[in-house]
């Protein structure tokens, strides 16, 4: 049983309009203390807009929102003192050094140098930038800048860390380094709110998530429960070549629970992938490539919206 | 950050009841601190310009052109004083305006559009008013430095005949800040870097510099051109005009 005190973010009917556009459309969710909560959705779903409302820098148009029990409309600065924010676009000071970025930022919370000097060193070590501590931010790679932004967001020892697309635009290796750091944070008890359009990121990092599309919540739950509810256990992926996929899909009718025909491949949702694939080949169908894999959140999204997460 | 314990170890001891209390009270100063740190990154260029600018101008205008003008204007001088004394305080004020322009133009636009660091400040408990005041205050510090150096150069060139000439310094600081505020307002409105700052520089600041009684008394202009001096944004006209008052006070009491 959750005590109310353990709910750190509470949204009911949360809505944001930009003129005629309803960017966030009456969403309900709760984030519990210490969990990693995800907002998964494609570009334009309203993830960043939701994040900015949580970060208490953008006023909601309607609905209820409370962060750590406080209403951001009234207690914006107080709430912001308890948050760490990693925005979608880095906004570091490029002209000063790595370590100075942390110190300067810590000063904005009114923290004294006596606290900030050792804290900055500790965080720089945590995000593995010790060698770059005295470098100008200009000279850092994209992944390093992202890690520095995370370190900066931790300088005030926040109760909630907000990460808007933390690994978008990074190469696979840089993403893994970053995931590893976020795992460590999660283990140490920091509440994480993460937006992403990468289903693997959501699966790896999030305890619970909401799937958003066009400002609405399409589904909510743990990655495993969402997959169980909206997809089969396994997926057979077949590629016959882009011109043949649609035509051959006809002949695959009867396989699995459901078939999705995408421009570049056919997906068969089934609980018995290998057997189905063997029977398909027995029938004389010769896919150029074939693959049996476990269902993912990408499949959940496809099922819910008929579209892929990344176009 | 290696262990579990450090996550909520230290910071809360330094926050009051409310985590925004200090930011609300001292946020402006925190922004100033940040700007001063950024200036430190280009400190050598600030110092170099602050020293070379007055030396070059005073040498060329005061000593070069000045000795020519003084030789031809007899005992009267320009508005009753040597040319160097006439032009010196105006150059000092214009150095203040240039400094304000530098600090309040591109850095402010960049804070919104390029580094986006103003958003970072706002994500902490800092508000827009504090950002503006903090940048102005830091600009003020830089102007103090620049005009102090300038004043020393004036004194070294013998262009400040009385101790009251030092009043040119506060006048220059106030003028610089007033001007910086206007530039900041423009900078924060610009959506793109589509060449507005060079335009402001060439079409507003330079004419202001040339035609508002800096180099020659305004009544030297034909009457149909004096409007240039009058419309030179009132701020700057006051600013550069202030040198007359300061100088007259200075000479009257000398
Ligand atoms: N400041 C803004 N003004 C107008 N429209 C906006 C603004 N911010 C976002 N939007 C619009 O709101 C919708 C949701 O945007 P966003 O929250 O950024 O989505 P996501 O982060 O999921 O990609 C988009 O259609 C976007 O164009
Ligand atoms: Mg976004």
**Helical residue percent of chain A?**
25-40%
Quote the distance from N terminus to C terminus of chain B.
Answer: 66 Å
Described by strand count, sense and barrel closure, the largest sheet of chain A is: 6 strands, mixed
Shape, per Cα inertia axes of chain B: elongated
Number of domains of chain A: 2
Mean pLDDT of chain A: 94
* Helical residue percent band of chain B: over 70%
Number of strands of chain A: 13
In the sheet with the most strands of chain A, the strands line up as 5-6-7-3-8-9
Number of strands of chain B: 0
Taking all Cα atoms into account, the compactness measure Rg of chain A is 22 Å
Largest interface: A-B, 44 and 42 residues
From the N-terminal CA to the C-terminal CA of chain A, the straight-line distance is 40 Å
- Percent in strands of chain A: 25-35%
CA-atom Rg of chain B in angstroms: 22 Å
Structural domains of chain B: how many: 1
Structure explained in plain terms:
The complex is a heterodimer of chains A (311) and B (254). Chain A is an alpha/beta fold. Chain A has 2 domains: 7-222, Rossmann fold, CATH 3.40.50.300; 232-294, Alpha-Beta Plaits (2-Layer Sandwich), CATH 3.30.70. In chain A, 35% of the residues lie in helices and 27% in strands. Chain A is built from 11 helices and 13 strands. Chain A has helices spanning 47-54, 72-80, 98-108, 113-126, 142-153, 172-187, 199-205, 223-230, 245-249, 273-282, 297-305, and strands spanning 7-18, 21-32, 36-40, 62-67, 83-86, 160-164, 191-196, 208-213, 216-221, 234-239, 258-261, 266-270, 289-294. In chain A, the strands form 3 sheets. Chain A has a 6-stranded mixed β-sheet, with helices on both faces. Chain A has a 4-stranded antiparallel β-sheet with strand order 11-12-10-13. In chain A, strand 1 and strand 2 (21-32) form a beta hairpin. In chain A, helix 3 packs across helix 4 (113-126) and helix 8 crosses helix 11. The radius of gyration of chain A is 22 Å and the shape is globular. The model of chain A has no long low-confidence stretch (mean pLDDT 94). Chain B is an all-alpha fold. Chain B has one domain (20-253). Helix content of chain B is 71%, strand content 0%. Chain B has helices spanning 21-41, 43-73, 83-104, 106-113, 117-123, 128-156, 168-189, 196-211, 227-231, 234-253. Chain B starts with 20 loop residues before the first helix and ends with a helix. Residues 1-8, 233-238 and 243-254 of chain B have low confidence and may be disordered.
């Amino acid at each position: 049983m959750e005590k109310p005190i353990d709910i750190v973010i509470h949204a009911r009917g949360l809505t944001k309009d930009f003129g005629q556009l309803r960017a966030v459309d009456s969403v309900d969710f709760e984030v519990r203390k210490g969990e990693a909560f995800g907002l998964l959705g494609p570009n334009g779903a309203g993830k960043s807009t939701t994040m900015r409302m949580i970060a208490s820098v953008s006023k909601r148009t309607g609905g209820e929102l409370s962060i750590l029990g406080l209403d951001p409309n009234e207690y914006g600065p107080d709430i912001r003192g308890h948050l760490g924010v990693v925005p979608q676009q880095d906004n570091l000071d490029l002209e000063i050094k790595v370590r100075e970025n942390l110190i300067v930022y810590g000063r904005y919370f009114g923290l004294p140098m006596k606290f900030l000097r050792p804290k900055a060193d500790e965080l720089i070590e945590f995000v593995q930038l010790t060698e770059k501590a005295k470098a100008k931010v200009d000279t850092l790679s994209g992944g390093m800048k992202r890690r520095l932004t995370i370190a900066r967001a931790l300088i005030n020892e926040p109760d909630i860390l907000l990460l808007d697309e933390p690994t978008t635009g990074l190469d696979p290796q840089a993403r893994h380094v970053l995931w590893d750091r976020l795992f460590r944070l999660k283990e140490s008890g920091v509440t994480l709110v993460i937006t992403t359009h990468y289903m693997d990121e959501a699966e790896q990092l999030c305890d619970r998530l909401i799937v958003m599309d066009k400002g609405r919540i399409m589904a909510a739950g743990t990655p495993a429960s969402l997959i169980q509810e909206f997809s089969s256990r396994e997926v057979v992926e077949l590629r016959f070549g882009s011109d043949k996929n649609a035509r051959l899909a006809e002949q695959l009718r009867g396989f699995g629970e459901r078939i999705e025909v995408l421009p570049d491949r056919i997906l068969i949702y089934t609980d018995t992938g290998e057997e189905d694939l063997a029977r398909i080949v027995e029938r004389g169908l010769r896919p150029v490539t074939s693959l049996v894999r476990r269902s993912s959140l990408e499949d959940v999204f496809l099922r819910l919206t008929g579209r892929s997460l990344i176009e | 950050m290696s262990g579990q314990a450090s996550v909520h170890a230290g910071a809360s001891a330094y926050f009051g009841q409310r985590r925004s209390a200090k930011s609300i009270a001292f946020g402006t100063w925190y922004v100033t601190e940040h700007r001063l740190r950024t200036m430190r990154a280009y400190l050598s260029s600030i110092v170099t310009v602050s020293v070379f600018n007055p030396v070059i101008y005073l040498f060329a205008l005061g000593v070069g052109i000045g000795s020519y003008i003084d030789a031809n204007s007899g005992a009267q001088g320009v508005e009753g004083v040597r040319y160097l004394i006439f032009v010196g305080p105006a150059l000092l004020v214009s150095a203040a305006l240039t400094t304000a322009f530098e600090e309040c133009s591109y850095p402010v636009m960049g804070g919104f559009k390029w580094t986006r660091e103003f958003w970072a400040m706002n994500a902490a408990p800092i508000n827009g008013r504090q950002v503006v005041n903090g940048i102005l205050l830091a600009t003020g510090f830089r102007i103090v430095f620049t005009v102090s150096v300038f004043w020393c150069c004036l004194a070294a060139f013998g262009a400040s005949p009385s101790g009251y000439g030092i009043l040119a310094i506060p006048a220059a600081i106030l003028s610089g800040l007033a001007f910086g505020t206007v530039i900041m307002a423009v900078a924060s409105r610009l959506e793109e870097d589509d060449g507005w700052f060079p335009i402001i520089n060439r079409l507003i600041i330079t004419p202001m510099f040339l035609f508002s009684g800096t180099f020659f008394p305004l009544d030297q202009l034909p009457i149909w051109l004096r409007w240039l001096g009058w419309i030179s944004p009132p701020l700057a006209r006051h600013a550069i005009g202030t040198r007359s008052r300061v100088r007259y006070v200075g000479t009257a009491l000398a």
